[in-house]
Amino acid sequence: QCQLSGLWRNEQDSLMDISAVRDDGNFKGTYLTRVTLAGGCAHASPLKGAQQQPGEGGWPTFAFTVRWEKFSNATAAFAGQCFVDAAGKETLTTMWLLREAVGSLTEDWKATR
């Protein structure tokens, strides 16, 4: 069984700390990103999400949003799945979308990555 709660580190050395997943699948935590467009130091931002409760023998899927605080006018949405290998190592795989605020509708084309 994969446990989503806890401290996670990604390939860019960012950290995600997820509090206990509630019985209804909801969770919250913080995301400390080391990757910013402006460069500089790491910044912690709040995250909120939900885990789909897995069926027997299944690996849970989940989604969460991060509201970047103090350094960016953007929001990111992540969706992924948790896996456990034969050695017991837990791994999260995710895809993400980042939406930055732009000044006009004509600039909308460059707002989502």
UniProtKB/TrEMBL annotation:
**A Gene Ontology term for the protein's cellular component:** extracellular region
Protein location: Secreted
Task: Write out the entry's keywords from A to Z.
Answer: Biotin, Disulfide bond, Glycoprotein, Secreted, Signal
Query: According to the UniProt record, which cysteines are disulfide-bonded?
Result: 2-82
Query: Which InterPro entries does the entry link to?
Result: Avidin, Avidin-like_sf, Avidin/str, Avidin/Streptavidin-rel
Which Pfam families is this protein grouped with?
Avidin (PF01382)
One GO MF annotation is: biotin binding
Family that this chain belongs to: Belongs to the avidin/streptavidin family.
What the entry lists under PANTHER family is as follows:
AVID PROTEIN-RELATED, AVIDIN-RELATED
- Share what the entry says about its subunit structure, partners included: Homotetramer.
Its annotated function is as follows: Forms a strong non-covalent specific complex with biotin.
Protein name according to UniProt: Avidin
Q: Tell me the organism.
A: Balaeniceps rex (Shoebill)
Upper classification of the source organism reads:
Eukaryota, Metazoa, Chordata, Craniata, Vertebrata
Q: Which gene encodes it?
A: Avd_3
